[in-house]
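Predict structure. Chain length: 271.
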Amino acid sequence: MALSAAAPETLLDIEDIHLSFVGVNVLNGVSLSIRRGEILSIIGPNGAGKTSLLNCINVHYRPQRGRIRFEGQEIGALRPHAIAALGIARTFQKVELFHGMTVLDNVKLGRHGALKFSLVGSFLRLPYFVRDELRHRAEIEEEVLDFMGLSSFRHHPVATLPLGIRKRVDMARALATKPKLLLLDEIMAGMAVEEKEDIASYILDVHRDLGVTIAWIEHDLAAVMDLSHRVCVLNFGTKIAEGPPHAVQHDPQVIEAYLGRRGVATPASRG
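Prediction complete.
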């Protein structure tokens, strides 16, 4: 993939982020810009700080130093629901779904913040509330579930579904928020080859057809090299490389730190 020759607009700007827990440094001065319209992969060994960086973006963690701006607005002091309202959504490395609920009900939760909610309207099922709820449900069923190939599973309890389908449900719930930036945390982890190929196709569809910018943590280097516009590499909480996949693939620091050996990181390598 090649980015446009025009200078891309910065959607999210991460500046000098420092994060530590009980004296253990997790992120050490990480700076990174996510450009509107790109797929950015964040890679590195286990414990490199990748998920912690995503947790700082959606304010699950509050860094001790540094700033994060989304569309020019500093977001570090906002609450998680306000981050979602701005247009930032995410999936989780360990699928965080309500397993006793159906696919449809799980995905509907992603749209909850957009409902014109009032306690009276909800309790009495007033016409305006019902109309708004039905409109959002129709959008979810026709646009999100169909788009993610989940229509035939809409009434299935999540607990009965295989991992690959549950990962798509998690992604669909994030898409139900109508995000501008989608954060994916190792969405391919634990998947068989066929499931990885399916989810790779959906990642490309979300990027191309919905125009969503994607920042993606991943250990599968073949997928990273195939799908990404740019790659950022973390090691022990420090950014050691950033650039196009082919350049990062041959960076000596990446080869040594990420792969743990000297040589060339081929697209078939695995993290």
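Summary: The two ends are 22 Å apart (CA to CA).
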